[in-house]
Structure formats: structure tokens, C-alpha cells
Amino acid sequence: MRPVYMVSGGITKFAKAHPEMTFQLMVKKAYDYALNDIGLTHKEAVKAIDGTVASYFSDHFTRQLMAGIMVQDYLGLVPKPGHRVEGGGATGGICFQEGYKSVASGVMDVCLTYGFETMSHVNTWKGNEFIALASDVNFDYPVGGFYTGYYAMMVVRHMKEFGTKVEQMAMVSVKNHINAYHNPYSQKQEKLTIKDVRSSPMVAWPLTRLDVCVMSDGAAVALLASEEGVRKLEKMSGTKLNPVRISGVGRGTDSMRMADRPHGKVILLPHESPNDYKHLDYPGIHSFRAGRMATKLAYEMAKIKDPRKEIDFVELHDAYTSSEIQTYEDMGLCKYGEGGKFVEAGNPFLPNIDYGLKLKKKGTIPVNPSGGLIACGHPVGATGLMQAVFAFWQVQHSIKKHFGNDLLQVKDAKRGAIHSHAGTGTYVTVSILEKA
What we know:
Blueprint: E1 5-11, H1 23-37, H2 42-48, E2 51-55, H3 59-62, H4 67-74, E3 82-85, H5 91-104, E4 110-118, H6 124-132, H7 140-144, H8 147-162, H9 166-181, H10 194-199, E5 202-204, E6 207-208, E7 217-225, H11 227-237, E8 244-253, H12 289-302, H13 307-310, E9 313-315, H14 321-330, H15 339-345, H16 372-375, H17 380-396, H18 399-403, E10 415-422, E11 427-435
Parallel strand pairs: 2-3, 2-4, 9-10
Antiparallel strand pairs: 1-7, 1-8, 4-7, 5-6, 8-11, 10-11
Helix pairs in contact: 1-4, 5-17, 9-14, 9-15, 14-15
């Protein structure tokens, strides 16, 4: 496979609603931003781009089938090849990896990946119903209903087995909301306390409204290229690019129905041994086996031996504060069972931000410096690509350029991971971006 680079990216501001824009225009604004950032004109881009991958979760939100081709037409990229991917909450992460494969395989030299969602077109309860259809509608859906119920059940088990506390979950919400406060693209810009999180309306115990991600409108694009594609773009634009290499991709899957997931040995990462988990009932309902598989494959491809020492930051799928804690463990940032203590110690916080919390070792591996899904927003088809754009800017050290401040810039960032998750852990993607 050929080396693949991300050369530019753009996003719209995520919002509860964008009534002033169609989904086509939302993508166009993100696309124009990406082109302008590398000095590429629309005419040059049409010549350079070999094809596209489109990402949106649900036809129900747009009330439009084949919306991807409508975007491609709007961008002036027909009759070039393109296709749409869908994989629940992991749709954007899958899109990014499909774009990677198009370039790595030699099919394309320059590939545009784009994602969007217009969730405001339906009432919140109806949107939650659409999302819940990504569970098994013959078995899980009739007895579980909306996803908050599933994740509440999972974290109750995590609390029972490992002693995880609701205050530790609230710390995740405080962190991500305060990070988003400094992110001009984020939907929610609030400074919260643990008390604020725990006193907000209860959705499904122990998850309150501020433990749960928001529904959003928004779009994001990532422009990927081979080495030859990078040279072509540089020649066209007359600009020396600052590409970021995609050094590892991994994907995992699991049974749709949680009751069908067998117990067995832990999938080990390079820095772990069987003795670490001799007595762990795995995966139970406290862990995401697909997340562990995606992580293992991405680390192997990127030659990462110990993520705690070799990854500078992570943008992960925090649909719930509880799932962020579970994902620390799946990605090997700490051992299984230690996710609550990991956040309580201060590891996933940015070292230079005041969170109003007493933390022992703030900032060993910042997680969700963007604010994550909880506070930046979760327009499903755009979310994984949003993570890619923010990770790209982090590794480029260009956060100040795009945000107007460098408060969220991870110091000396050379390598980051992005993580996208669907359902109750049925599809998960992990991708590694690093300094070229």
C-alpha cells in the first residue's frame, strides 16, 4: 500500500440547527474552507480530485435518498466516482478510512471525504428513535428503547465491577464542555462544575442530560492524497503544503445484540500481558470488543508499542461520559477497570486549561481537546471527519490559525488518534495521524 496523507480539512460550526443552509451548502462551506486553506481554487480542485466518499447516517433526517450524489453535483464533481458509506455513529470514521483505502490502493491520488447530518429536521424524540433503530429492532429495541438506556446499563455494570463513580463521569463532562468553550466551531460553549452535571435532569440513571451528547447539524471534509497527489496539489496551488501522514487504520465489529457476545480472553495490545487480566470477565457489557480490535490493528500498522508514551492526544467518540471512560480502557490508555481513576487523576485534561478541579497529573494524554461529541456536537455523518480535521490541525500545530487562539493546542503534538464508534460497539474505527 502507498503512503497516504491528509492535506487539508474544513468544518462548519456545529449547531442545534442550521435552518439557513441545506445539507449541500453545509458541505460546500466546509469544502471551500479546506480549499482556501491550501490556496486551491475550485477549478483546480475539480481537476485534482479523483473521486469522493460521502458520509451520512440516516436518510430519515434529510428525507432524501441518495443525498450524497446531490452533494457531489453541488460541488461540481460529477461525473467522477463516488460512493456513500453508513455505519451508525462510526459513519464518519468509516468514511475517512474508505478514503484512505482509495488512495492507498492506487485507485485515486486525491480523494475528498465529506460528511454531514441535518438532525434538526425532526423532533428530538423522533431523532432518538431513528438512532435507536441502529440496535436490533427484533430483540434489543423493544425492551431497551433509546440508546441512553443501553449505555446506562453498561456503566452500571462498570460501576459494580470496577468501582467507577458518577463524579468521575461528571469530570469528563466538565472537561469536554470547558474545552469546547474555547473552540469556535463547537455547539455548546459552557463552563460547568461537577455539581452542574449531577444536578441536571436525569435521563437514565446514572446518566444526566449533561452526560449525554447533543444532536446537531453540521458538516466536515477531509482531503486525502498520495505523495504524487500532494505534489500535484502543490504544483496547482503554488503552495508548499504541510501534510499529515495517516500511519495506521483499524476497524472492529461485534454482534448487534449484546446478549450474543461471547466471553473469552482479552484482546491484548502490545504493552499488555495475559497476567494483566487473569480474572477479567471480558468483554462483558462494560467493554467494547470492537474498539479493542480496531485499536490493536491501528497500533500494529502505526508501529505503536505503548500508546501511553507514543500518542500525544486522542479525539474519541464520547457519546456518553461513561463511554469515554470505557474507551480509555479499550484503547489501552489505562488498564481495564481503571478508566474512572484515569480521569480522576487528570490524565485526559489539557495542562494549560483551568477546569476548576484539583488534579494530580493534568495532561499526560489529552482526550477530546475539541470538546468531543458531548460539547462540540454530534452531526453523526460529520463527527468522525470532524475528529480528523481537529487532529490534523493539532499535528500541524495550526490550532491558533483556525481557532484564533492556541489554548487547545496540544504542545509538541506529533501523533494523535481518532476513534469513531457505532451502536453499542458494533462498528468501531481507530485511525492514527502523525507528523509527516
